[in-house]
Design brief:
The chain is mainly β. The chain has helices at 18-29, 105-112, and strands at 11-14, 32-42, 55-65, 69-77, 98-101, 118-120, 125-126, 136-142, 147-152. The protein contains two helices and nine strands; from the N terminus they run βαββββαββββ. The strands form two sheets. Strands 5, 6, 7, 8 and 9 form a five-stranded mixed beta sheet that branches. It has a four-stranded mixed beta sheet with strand order 1-4-3-2, covered by helices on one side. Residues 7-153 form the VOC domain. InterPro entries: Glyas_Bleomycin-R_OHBP_Dase (IPR029068), MMCE/EMCE_epimerase (IPR051785), VOC_core (IPR037523).
């Protein structure tokens, strides 16, 4: 596939309460709300094997996180199908997480620990050995079930870089220090 003109536009996340999620992302991660849309009366797409879109009321908000990502938050209400009681774990089919690069992971963890709408799923870990030796990471869980990873790594200092010219894309403020 020729991908010179292909780019990731956004990550879409389903949330149970749009207002709560917008507040969380703007307060906890400094996202900027760009616009809201809806309510719409159906999901807008046909799931394989179904003759019509699922009946639901859909509202959405599009957020921007600095110069790095667009995040779409979707709230589906009055659904014709029943929700699972909890969100899928990252190890389950359909499970996912959103990751934020952070310069000072320990300072952000300390700040987020003051919030009552997140629970950390461990402590900040530092990779020992392997292709990402030195990378720091931790997972947290929002009160509505979204898994978020915070991570930090140094461009040009990960062991995988020795064996390939391919590079992970760093945040914009570090791109001038990265090679490749």
């Amino acid at each position: 596939m020729h991908n010179e003109r292909l780019a990731v536009d956004h990550v879409g996340l389903t949330v149970p309460d749009l207002d709560q999620a917008v507040t969380f992302f703007t307060e906890a991660f400094g996202c900027e709300e760009i616009f809201r849309a809806g309510p719409y009366s159906d999901c807008g797409y046909f799931w394989p094997g179904e003759a019509q879109p699922e009946v639901a009321t859909v509202r959405l908000a599009m957020l921007r996180h600095g110069g790095t990502h667009n995040v779409e938050l979707l709230e589906y209400k009055d659904r014709s199908r029943v929700d699972r009681p909890e969100a899928p774990r990252p190890t389950e089919r359909g499970g996912a997480h959103l990751a934020f690069y952070v310069d000072d992971i320990h300072a952000l963890v300390d700040a987020l620990r003051q919030r009552n709408d997140v629970r950390f799923l461990g402590v900040v870990e530092r990779e020992q050995g392997g292709p990402i030796d030195g990378l720091e990471w931790v997972y947290l869980l929002t009160s509505w079930g979204l898994v978020i990873e915070l991570l930090r790594w140094e461009p040009g200092q990960l062991p995988y870089e020795v064996g390939t010219s391919a590079r992970l894309i760093p945040p914009p403020w570090l791109r001038d220090t990265a090679t490749g």
